[in-house]
Write a structure and sequence with these properties.
Helix 9 (389-402) packs parallel to helix 14 (472-494) and helix 12 crosses helix 14. This protein starts with a strand and ends in a 17-residue tail after the last helix. Helices cover 33% and strands 20% of the residues. It is built from 14 helices and 18 strands. It has helices at residues 16-27, 70-82, 92-98, 154-163, 220-232, 337-348, 359-364, 368-383, 389-402, 406-418, 423-428, 440-455, 460-467, 472-494, and strands at 5-13, 30-33, 39-42, 50-54, 59-66, 88-89, 102-107, 113-118, 146-150, 168-176, 183-190, 199-203, 212-216, 237-244, 250-255, 261-266, 279-280, 285-288. Strand 2 and strand 3 form a beta hairpin. The strands form two sheets. Strands 17-10-11-12-9-13-16-15-14-18 form a ten-stranded mixed beta sheet, covered by helices on one side. An eight-stranded mixed beta sheet has the order 2-3-4-1-5-8-7-6.
């Protein structure tokens, strides 16, 4: 099977109206309403390149791949079935929604759904960008590329893409983003066209199922005007303009209404595959692509201390799937179990509960007096708090993320779920207060955490926003809570506290 191109993507979203505004006013695509409250995004001569369908939560429903004709389609369907892959053929209603003659669908070992179609519908309406974009780079190259997460068997997924889907390697990397951190692999694949890659797979988890997709325009001016439109519409820019190593794209990254990123760029390499050598990419970008304030753990950033001029180091260039993980070799060896259990008994009595099994509790046990002193303080924040539990967990998760503490973020992923946060919301913590989907109250809490982390205080705007939703004791508790979990996060990082087996870490999301 040889897939011609990435023809379309299908996005499930509770933010269809926001997608309409985002597509029209920022991306510069045409939009059209579809059946059942769906939305089409039109880039070129085809009926659409993106289909957004109403849903309760955000996720990538499918990546759609096209074939030239019915003969190629029938051969591809037979090939996939012969591999033992479970296949479903699109119903009449599904085909009509996608505006294709036929399609079949399957799920890859990484959990991503793919659709293979033939007979797409061309539009009689010429493409005219409502934002003045000259055109989009599509045609035989397809709509761009998708970057998909793989939390399961990466090698199995790689084999599937090659042997079942017929994709071919373009480039790859395999490296650690911090000393002793996990090995992260990403592979880039191309279709039967000259776009440098149409799909990338990276070792990470991501509840939305999509890290980003690329929108390519022909000129740097088109990219710059899109950046201006993002500013004018208050659309969050996640990463600054930069140039990638593997495909040479000059781009920046926007936050979409669904919480994943959209790469907006120009200058993508058009490859002669007869002369291409698959390369190990040592670094993702030649320059730029800096995380913007509020996005990504910024552990490389030195904060103003008040004891001298502020110093700001270059932020680490990374994606959500490339979060630097504290090395897993702890700096302090655990106490002998008998000694540890006696300290826990003396400090906690019968009230230790599951906390006695946590690695960070074992670290505190090296200083029994401090462990005893902080116990009532921690218990008060955890059990007798006046701040609603959901607000509590949103704040703790955000300060854990900003401190780059995967240990603390993972602990409160579990307690956040108990407080009613969904995995989509926990993943959205990484995007910060400007991400679509937060209530005004939650955005105010997240903004307060960011200002406390960045500025060691609160602006009048942040204070006023908090005051509209929280009373004075709740605000004071929030301030103390952020300070407390900043301390815990820093301790966990500095002591290299390892995550307990089976506990989650950061939500992953690659670039």
């Amino acid at each position: 099977m040889k897939l011609d191109q990435l023809a379309y993507i299908v996005i499930a979203s509770a933010e269809v109206s926001r997608w309409r505004e985002f597509a029209r006013d920022v991306l510069g695509t045409m939009t059209a309403d579809g059946p059942g409250g769906s939305l089409y995004l039109k880039y070129d001569e085809w009926h659409h390149r993106v289909l957004v369908v109403p849903a309760e939560e955000e996720r990538l429903m499918a990546s759609g791949w096209s074939l030239r004709d019915k003969y190629a389609y029938d051969a591809a369907l037979a090939h996939v079935r012969n591999t033992g892959t479970a296949v479903s053929e699109g119903t009449a209603a599904e085909r009509e929604l996608r505006m294709v003659s036929e399609f079949f669908a399957f799920t890859d070992p990484a959990g991503s759904r793919h659709e293979v179609c033939w007979g797409r519908t061309m539009s009689s309406v010429p493409f005219v960008s409502p934002a003045g974009v000259s055109r989009f780079v599509t045609g035989d190259l397809g709509m761009g590329h998708v970057v998909l997460p793989c939390h399961g068997d990466f090698d199995e997924a790689m084999t599937f893409y090659r042997d079942v889907m017929g994709l071919e390697y373009s480039d790859y990397f395999a490296r650690r983003f911090s000393p002793g951190g996990p090995l992260v692999r990403a592979y880039f694949f191309h279709c039967d066209n000259r776009r440098q890659h149409s799909l990338a797979l990276i070792e990470s988890s991501n509840p939305v199922g999509l890290v980003h997709f690329l929108v390519e325009v022909p000129t740097l001016d088109d990219v710059g005007r899109a950046a201006d439109r993002a500013v004018a519409t208050s659309t969050p820019v996640v990463r600054s303009i930069g140039r990638h190593v593997n495909d040479s794209v000059v781009s920046f990254y926007l936050l979409s209404p669904s919480g994943f990123q959209v790469e907006y760029g120009c200058g993508g390499e058009v490859v002669d595959w007869t002369r291409h050598e698959v390369r190990d990419i040592s670094y993702g970008t030649y320059w730029g692509h800096e995380w913007q304030p509020g996005f990504g753990p910024e552990r490389a950033r030195r904060k103003p201390t008040g004891r001298g001029p502020p110093t700001t180091a270059r932020r680490t260039l990374m994606t959500q799937a490339q979060v630097p993980t504290p090395p897993r070799s702890p700096r302090i060896a655990p106490l002998p179990d008998e000694t540890y259990r006696e300290i826990v008994r003396q400090v906690y009595g019968d009230s230790a509960g599951p906390a006695a099994d946590l690695n960070i509790t074992r670290a505190w046990a090296h200083h029994p007096a401090l462990m005893a002193a902080q116990h009532p303080y921690q218990t008060h924040l955890r059990t007798t708090n006046v701040l609603p539990r959901r607000d509590h967990e949103v704040a703790v998760l955000r300060i854990g993320w900003r401190c780059g503490s995967e240990y603390e973020f993972g602990q409160h992923t579990v307690s956040g779920r108990r407080a009613g946060l969904t995995d989509t919301e926990i993943s959205r913590i990484a995007a910060g207060p400007h991400a679509p989907g937060w209530s005004d109250r939650e955005a105010a809490v997240l903004t307060a955490v960011d200002e406390l982390y960045d500025d060691n205080g609160l602006s009048a705007t942040a204070w006023d926003a908090l005051s509209r939703h929280l009373d004075t004791p709740q605000i004071i508790e929030l301030l103390v809570l952020v300070g407390r979990y900043w301390t815990v996060s820093v301790v966990a990082n500095a002591l290299r506290i390892p995550i307990e087996p089976g506990r989650p870490g950061f939500p992953g999301a690659p670039s």
